[in-house]
Every structure is written in structure tokens, then in C-alpha cells.
Amino acid sequence: MIEIAGLTKSYGRGAKTAHALRGIDLQINSGMFGLLGPNGAGKTTLMRILAGIVNPSQGNLRVKGHDLTTEAGKRAVKSVLGYLPQELGMYLELTAAQFVDYMAILKGLNEPRERKSRVAAVLEMVALQDSAERKIKGFSGGMKRRVGIAQALVNDPKLLIVDEPTAGLDPEERIRFRNLLVNLAVDRTVILSTHIVEDIGQTCRDIAVLAKGQILFRGSPAELAEAADGHVWSVTSARLEEPEPGLTVVSMLHLTDGIQYRLVGPRPKAFPLAEAARPSLEDGYVWLMKRAAG
Amino acid sequence: MKYAWLTYRRDALWFPPALWALFLVIVAIMRHPEIRFNLARGYLGFIMPLISGMMAAYAVLEDPALELRFATPVRAEQTLLARLGLIMAVQTACALSFQLFLLALKVDLSVLGGLFGVQLAWFLPTLSLIALGTAGALAGAQTVIGAFLVGAVWLVQVMMKGWFDANSRYLHLFRGVLVPGDPDLVLNQCVLLAGSMALLFLSWVLLHRQERYI
Fold first, then answer.
1. CB contact (8 A) between residue B73 and residue A75
2. Are A41 and A47 in contact (CB under 8 A)?
3. Do A105 and B211 make contact, defined as CB atoms within 8 angstroms?
4. How wide is the angle at C-alpha A188 spanned by C-alphas A183 and A191, nearest 5°?
5. What is the ipTM of this complex?
6. Long-range contacts of B34-39 (CB under 8 A, 24+ apart)
7. Most Cβ neighbours (<10 Å): which of A99, A142, B51, B121?
8. How far apart are CA A175 and CA A180, in angstroms?
9. B3 shares contact with chain A (CB less than 8 Å)
């Protein structure tokens, strides 16, 4: 459904050129797709390009057959797009229903009766039907995010792009949000961009890891976890110790008999009794980042 | 239209009616016909264009949901029409109601031309500074650049009437209120209209480069 070939995005000119994306090649099919990467990896730039807001410097990009490098293609994609940006700006003086209604108008839903029922349906979908007539300025962060997803869904998009959607949400909200996204992915393409590994692991079967503007990994979460096989160690030490260079502490747990470390990297020489541990998705991600950093 | 109103900055929208009310009171208080005329001319011909231009500089880019708006298929011309049209609608309401008030007070504006001439005297400088404020903000990708340009041009145009008389009368924004009897006034008005259209076209082109504004 989405074909990206040789996608490059640069800012600035000459010596001051900054490369946000460096020759991305990706094919994304229907369902839930996770884009994982550290802050500054280029995820938001890629999301904005896919949303038709930012123009690529080079490369080809087609969404449902529409060329996103042309104005006509952008308009065609935007008419089937739902977009939830990382920094969600809203009109705080509007009620939730008014805000979603306004976004529906911008998206071309011109028939008032149809629009009204659609607005009510998406607000119910995000469990905001009881707060529909309340002004957004009185909403919590989680409720604002839910209004954000409601506006993204109001045109029943075939492509839903959500950029760091769970940032700032409490655990309950995060779980609810993730479940909602998975449900939505049944009959559309949902692209979830995040730096939170857990969100990807709980929702996606198809993921890519982006770092420094390049795709470092493409596959399933299980395959990413497997990449760290033989490089994850569990050690219990009586005292707090600095890990050897080249090892990353992914977790520390204070036990009654000492501190349990989970390490990613080569076998720790200082701990001959270190046991190999079964890698998790987070371990795989950390190992990938370590390898990329050289 | 309902949402154009609801999503516009309220504090900015109160500004034109506040000035309108202020000038109404001052004109009502003053007794001398010439002072009343000059106040009316000042409000319609100078203050309204300045305020409109300043508002236009902030109208498009100062939008909390700009990124969401850019992700919709709404066209650049629709955005410009919604934002600038609202400013023009508010200012038109202010200008027409102000003239009705002047009529009640028997303040004579016929020096500025007939009914149509009076409307052109405030409309063209207002449209010009709206177009300049919008294009300036979009070209600089900052609202303050548009506002600065409007303020600078307004000041130069007000202060340098003599220079415009001698050198560039077609580009004088306030010709209609300052020299209404100028034989070249129609040409001046045509130039202002064409210039405004060119700046609005430039704004339309610039608004397609959405990544500059997020």
C-alpha cells in the first residue's frame, strides 16, 4: 500500500546541510506497522512526509498508488488520511464535539447530518461521548489525546498515522490507546511511530527501526529480539558496580542478596558467573543501537 | 464561517470593535466639524488598514492546530479566504457602521468622493496591508516579520506623503484619504488593487510550502 524508495530529506544548504532521512526504502502493507527509533532518528520527518506536509528532497513515495511528491497526489492521500501529530495543537475554547466537527469539515465531510453522526460515533469510539460538549481546555492530557485520535478517525481514513501517541499518558490510558489502535488496524493501515519499545511490542507484527535517518532493521518484534540472542546477560552482584565498557545496563533490580543486573553486550569478563538471558524486544533494540553506534 | 470565527484568536478579534468604539466616542465628543472629519478620516483611512494588516500577519500562522490543518485536503485558497475573509468582514462591518454613525452626526465625508469613493478610500489601503501582512509573515515564516513590514510600510507612507507626491504617487497607500482630488487617483487605486492581488497570490504560493510553518 505504501511504497517508499530512496527517500531522502535534507535541511539547510552547503556545509550546514542536515540529513534527516538518508535513502529510506520501505514497503508498508495493510495492518499495524511500528516505526521505532530514538529521539532525533527522523521518525517525525518521515511521518510528516507520509502525511503530505513535508516534501522529500529526493526519492519516490506512493500511497495507495498516489504519488506524494505531486500536489494532486498529496491531496488524494490527505483525503484518506488520519493524522495524529506528536505535538497536538488544538483550539482549547472549542468543545470536543466542535473540534472534531471542524476537522471533519476540513476533511471534506460536508453533509451536516452525516457529519454529526460520524462525530458522535468517533467520540464514542474513544469513550468521550459524555464529555463531547465540554471545552477541551478542561481536559486531561489523556483526554486531549483521545480527542486527537477522534479527529484523525472522523473521515474513516484508510491510512492512520500516529506519531508518539502515548507520550504523557498514564499506564491505563496507554493500554486503552494501544488496544484502540490494534482494533483500528483490522481494516486499514496504521503507522505507529514511537520511541517506546513496549508500545511496539504490544501492538505490531511488522516493525522497522530508524536511527540517524536510516532503516537499521525491518522485520517482526520476535526477529528484533532474536538479534540480541547470546548478547544478553543476567548477573547478581553484592555491590553496585559500573559495567565494563561495551556493556549496557538495561535493568537493575535490588534484591535481598544484592543487585541483579541485566546487561546487553559481549560476555562480561568481570562476572564469570553471568548467565545468558532470553532476549526481550527491548534487549534487541538496545543491541541494534549499540551495533549501529559501532 | 462559524468555525472561522470560533477558531480565530478572540483577543485579536476584539481589537477592531474596541477601536471602533473608541473613535465613535471621540467623534461624538468633538464638536468642531473639521476635527470630526479628520478623526473619521483617520480611523477609516489610517487606523483600520494598520490594524487589519497587523491582524493578517498573525491570522494564518498563529493557529494551534496548524499541523492538523496541513494534514487535511483543505486548499491554500480556502485557508486564506477563511482567515483573511474574517478580518475583512469584521472591518467592513466596523467601517459601514461607523459611516452610519457619522451620517447621524452629520459628519460630511463627501470630500473623499461619493459613497463608492469613500468605501475605496478605506478598503484599498486595508486590503493592501492585509495582503502585505500575510505575504510578509509567510515569506519570513514568522508572524512578527509580517507585522513589522506592515508597521514599517504604514509609517513610511504616513510620514513621507511629500515624497510620494513627487516621486511615486501610484504607490501611495493613503492617496484616497489624503489627496482625494488627485487626477491620478484611479490609476493609484488600480495599482494598489493589482499590488494586493499580487501579494495575495504570493501568499497562496507560499502557503503550499507547509513544512516551513510547522
1. yes
2. no
3. no
4. 85
5. 0.89
6. B36/B102, B36/B105, B36/B107, B37/B107, B37/B108, B37/B109, B37/B111
7. A99
8. 9
9. yes
